[in-house]
Protein 1
Amino acid sequence: MINTHTTVKTETVIVDTTFTCPVNSFNEWDPLEEVIVGTVDGASFPSWHIALEPVLPENQRETFRLNAGKPFPAERVAAARTELEEFVHILECEGVKVRRPESMDNLKSFSALGWTSTGLYTAMPRDVLLVVGNEIIECPPAWRSRYFETCGYRPLLKEYFREGAKWSMAPKPELSDEQYDYTWTEPEEDEPTRLVITEFEPTFDAADFTRMGRDIIAQKSNVTNDFGIEWLQRHLGDQYRIHVLEFNDPHPMHIDATLVPMAPGKLLINPERVPKVPSIFKGWDVFHAPTPIIPDDHTLYMTSKWINMNILMLDEERVVVERQDEPMISALKRWGFKPVPCNFRNFNSFGGSFHCATLDVRRRGRLESYLLD
Ligand code: ABU
């Protein structure tokens, strides 16, 4: 664009970074070219802390207290590892380059000012790293056990940086006691949602954000506060608009089992948590996720059964979905998508599914707007 109205001529050159930068991802649906898939190797119950209380299923809180600092059962880790290998194989067959983090010794305790913790895992890159365009941001976690989790991804981050990506880190939080409400208790049914973190300093998990080009949807949660969302908005600048939405979720942590944009104009919602479609999705087709069919006796350490919504779009049509989730597979076909089934129920036990287990590093596409003004 040449500005001819002033004596100084300015020129804006739109550079399409799709072919020049190793990191390039603006939304959840452009054709996927490169992805990081997490690992369950070294996964351990973290040190107990108040921040875990509101987000663990009630029947798991005691298990976490009793096993703090011990590895997750070896047979569960092995079953999840086998499913991750199947997932990697499927992605590669679909033409996607797969990268893996290093596993970490999560039994080793570490300290910061005034506290000590052991680690959790490097299974869910979606929680700790946020890709926006050509940039990867290391998120400031609210969980002490996740303080050093991004170290497992550092070899990859260094490589991407050397090849031209922007690599940033949000302000390292202190995670002192001021960041938590130690009086947190379960709210009564008619009471509003109560969050365990305060506004002492910015914290956020990437999984509380979902990207739709210039518009990014966010939720406040038990790990993401207003301070963190504001930090991200200012960091990203005016090219992006973060919309903070509130859902009917008494224990919010991560948006990707609540509201999942699948393609331009196509939105998957959790019918329990999203009773009314937010007005910014005016004109979009809205699909209600089928009720999950995960049996009651299947251990879910850190998630609700709505993890069945945690799908991964390979492009605007192909979508990776849990192989046993027949209602979801049928619904996806009905809605015009092409399901790519993969066993993942044992991985689900660790708190995530295909979206959580991945970080889409490269999608073939550019920054665009998808909302009607
Ligand atoms: N990122 C996992 C979210 C799980 C849930 O909201 O139930």
Note: Residues 207, 254, 256-257, 303-304, 306-307, 352, 356 surround gamma-amino-butanoic acid (CB under 6 Å).
Protein 2
Amino acid sequence: MSTFTVLNPATEETVATVPSTSVEETDAAIARAVAAREAWRAAGPGDRAALLRAFADAVDAHTEELAGLEVAGSGHPVGQARWEAGNVANVLRYYSAAPERLFGKQIPVPGGVNVTFQEPVGIVGLIVPWNFPMPILGWGLGPALAAGNPVIAKPAERTPLTAIRIGELAREAGLPDGVFQVLPGKGSVVGQRLVDHEAVRKIVFTGSTEVGRQIMAGCARQVKRLTLELGGKSANIVFADADLEQAAATAPQAVFDNAGQDCCARSRILVQRSVFDRFMEMLEPAVKRVAVGDPARPDTEMGPLISAEHRARVASYVPAGAPVAFRGSAPDGPGYWFAPTVLAPVRPDDPAYTEEVFGPVVAVVPFEDEADAVKLANDTPYGLSGSIWTQNLGRALRVSRAVETGNLSVNSHSSVRYWTPFGGFKQSGLGRELGPDALDAFTETKNVFIATGE
Ligand code: NDP
């Protein structure tokens, strides 16, 4: 049996050795999901809801264990890892209300009436990246299960530990066999098989835009339903009339959270020229205050990058002679550390300004006026997230409408909440997750005409 090794990114020590699922084992899991499908679809809405709540309770009861696995296997700061485990439980609980609210419509038509039913789409393949192993698993899992679909999750090869444990908790909570399975292994083996197998009716993929394109092409062969959550290069837009102190104090969190390995990272800070120097003066101490170090310590704010290869990739965006304005700190010694880095002034064609770095590197760029800010913000193939800082309500709304991106925050650095829709514009994705309408992505609308005669 082939295996792979999970390393602790903060120490480079081995945390676990995990079996790598083969194509044959993936097919066997799909067969178990097929066997479970009818009973799960037909389960009473109240029963499905109760099982989801029991599952949420089991996750809650194991918060510390799950957080410990994420600290060791992914290098996430423990406070963040606890929040992530809580997010899974909250999302399951939020969608546990959905089975009892899967309403259809009745539509009067000549000669009768039409009724619609929201039918589960079928087996869902959930392909998860390494940056947020728990929340991203939960965002697909909650609505997919609630809608009556069996789910097969493929965690990222580097970070499978929490998903494996959450799969065990689902069974302990009473989810029937085959309803939720976790298959650790390679994307090119397990992920590809989920895309290619005809019994899998929907793929939920979160990851790079490049792999997303391949998956979209694979799904096209069978006209398979697909949700894509891909890369980002989001702008944090600071107008001269903003609360500059607040904007500068939170800008490090907006980009350096999870060591910048965040699709929503505001990795371009656009600042109105008249306040540019003042903003930079305030940003510098905020960046230097970021507590980078041992993820197991409760006061740590930023941990290491995921791997040596990824650190080399991030470092390539800050070559010798790069325009580094200032940097935060990072530990020496073992671990894939990279200090928070602020670049200014950057050339418009600098890859650190145009490409997704997926590390703690931010470029700060001046703009002249509102039109210029919108033009710069939109000058990217991505459109996932962003922030707007201004005291002018009209401008906040105008710019929010003009920026081509899926999730924005005004006078705040964060825009992801499980009870609101999440997803990207342009090359950042396809379809929406989270929020009250997420069930639409996991159901098909069936339309039935009933003739009433005379
Ligand atoms: P990848 O695209 O490399 O991998 C994502 C997942 O897909 C992994 O589980 C991977 O498996 C699997 N995979 C790889 N190749 C295939 C294939 N041919 N068929 C099926 N599955 C495959 O992305 P990263 O893990 O590097 O994640 C980082 C990227 O994810 C960033 O670009 C980031 O912006 C994006 N992202 C987007 C989010 C959003 O919501 N929009 C949220 C979080 C991240 P394996 O581990 O074996 O490689």
Note: The CA atoms of residues 69 and 162 lie 6 Å apart.
